[in-house]
Amino acid sequence: MGRAKKVVLAYSGGVDTSVCIPYLMHEWGVEEVITLAADLGQGEELKPIQEKALKCGAVQSLVEDATETFVTDYAFPAICANTLYEDRYPLSTALARPLIAKLLVEAAEKYNADAVAHGCTGKGNDQVRFDVGITALNPNLKVLAPAREWGMSREEAITYGEKFGIDFPVKKSSPYSIDRNLLGRSIEAGPLEDPMTEPTEEIYAMTKAIADTPDEPEYVEIGFTKGIPVSINGNELAPVALISQLNETVGKHGVGRIDMIENRVVGIKSREIYETPALLVLIQAHRDLESLTLTADVTRYKRGIEQTYSELIYQGLWYSPLKPALDAFIQQTQSTVSGTVRVKLFKGNAVIVGRQSANSIYAPDLATYGAEDQFDHKAAEGFIYIWGLPTRVWSEKTRGNL
């Protein structure tokens, strides 16, 4: 692990990243630390965080508002790909990491830094996403991870920071580790490390408990253009506004909670709780609209691409050469995915109850069992004969030997 003179540090304002500032300077000989806090719609005032970094010893404290980019360049491609890691997690936190990595690299290049740093430990996924993403964007930059090497407990880190005048008003921290952005929240650690422990309501912030949800269902119509969500109930909305409004509407009905055991990149299993109201419903609605507008073979083949795409994001390979190849396929499939999906929200459930598209390849006169039926029933017999021919030949050749 090389040393550096000027470092751009991904900064959240928490204990670890705050302690990273004096640690980098006093233990690793870094001369200048520039911090970068990314605003990804987490609903948090970042000016105090900016000021805190300077008090901790940073020579410059940057705040980048990248919320719109986060939605248009990261969330929307994921929706088009129906990304659900292990068929459950829509990657709300994982999607933020390649964007933060990009911001770090851009800042390092702008301020002539020779390294970037983060506060990740050696057990999580984010270290992989940052390290791989940064080196893919600029392989000449060093990547420093002090928290991965210093071996201090949280209490020891606080004590270390206090030696350099860093004030930590809340000494007793929450037992939970929480990450939030516009797309959702991830909650882990503390009592949740026991897979049999039921999460308490205190950990949730974006979704209501079922007992507190409305007693009447609410219908939401989501409009898509070429796979991209563009409207709610007929009202066109900008990307950030659309996600924000849908988060509120969906979360109000208790939809969007995930409690799962997932397989981390580093080879261990972890228990994770997620709140992703808008993202889950958008993927559900988008996939349903595809069932109306894509042919069977494209739909089936795309399922494998979606799984690969989900794993690619989760494993920190956003900037790998495989991603643009997958993007090209997905973008091609989205040319006809335009229309409206009607979703019923009620007591923790989001149920698709309707869909329509000018590009629909659902043919009522072929599907109906009524008088309007145009399907040639007589043709079915010949089709079945040809379709079943290999099975019949196999049976004739082998049934006497079974």
Topology overview:
Elements: E1 6-10, H1 15-26, E2 32-39, H2 47-55, E3 60-65, H3 67-80, H4 96-110, E4 115-117, H5 126-137, E5 142-144, H6 154-163, E6 177-181, E7 184-188, E8 218-225, E9 228-232, E10 235-236, H7 239-252, E11 257-263, E12 269-275, H8 277-293, H9 296-314, H10 322-333, E13 339-346, E14 349-356, H11 364-367, H12 379-387, H13 389-398
Parallel strand pairs: 1-2, 1-4, 2-3, 4-5
Antiparallel strand pairs: 6-7, 7-12, 8-9, 8-13, 9-10, 11-12, 13-14
Helix pairs in contact: 1-6, 4-5, 7-8, 9-10
Helical amount: 25-40%
The CATH architecture term of the largest domain is Alpha-Beta Complex
Question: Which topology of the largest domain does CATH recognise?
Answer: Argininosuccinate synthetase, chain A, domain 2
Strand segment tally? 14
Question: How many domains?
Answer: 3
Order of helices and strands: EHEHEHHEHEHEEEEEHEEHHHEEHHH
Provide the β-strand percentage band: 15-25%
CATH class of the largest domain: Alpha Beta
Low-confidence stretches: none
Put the structure in a nutshell.
With 402 residues, the protein is α/β, with parallel strands linked by helices. The protein contains 13 helices and 14 strands. Helix content is 39%, strand content 20%.
Can you walk through the features of this model?
The protein is α/β, with parallel strands linked by helices and 402 residues long. The protein has 3 domains: 6-175, HUPs (Rossmann fold, 3-Layer(aba) Sandwich), CATH 3.40.50.620; 178-356, Argininosuccinate synthetase, chain A, domain 2; 364-401, Single alpha-helices involved in coiled-coils or other helix-helix interfaces (Up-down Bundle). 39% of the residues lie in helices and 20% in strands. The chain has helices spanning 15-26, 47-55, 67-80, 96-110, 126-137, 154-163, 239-252, 277-293, 296-314, 322-333, 364-367, 379-387, 389-398, and strands spanning 6-10, 32-39, 60-65, 115-117, 142-144, 177-181, 184-188, 218-225, 228-232, 235-236, 257-263, 269-275, 339-346, 349-356. A 5-stranded parallel sheet has the order 3-2-1-4-5, sandwiched between helices. A 5-stranded antiparallel sheet has the order 10-9-8-13-14. The chain has a 4-stranded antiparallel sheet with strand order 6-7-12-11. β9 (228-232) and β10 (235-236) form a beta hairpin. α4 (96-110) crosses α5, α7 crosses α8 and α9 runs antiparallel to α10. The radius of gyration is 25 Å and the shape is elongated. Pathway: Amino-acid biosynthesis; L-arginine biosynthesis; L-arginine from L-ornithine and carbamoyl phosphate: step 2/3. It is found in: Cytoplasm. L-aspartate binds at residues 121, 125-126. Residues 176-394 form the Arginosuccinate synthase C-terminal domain.
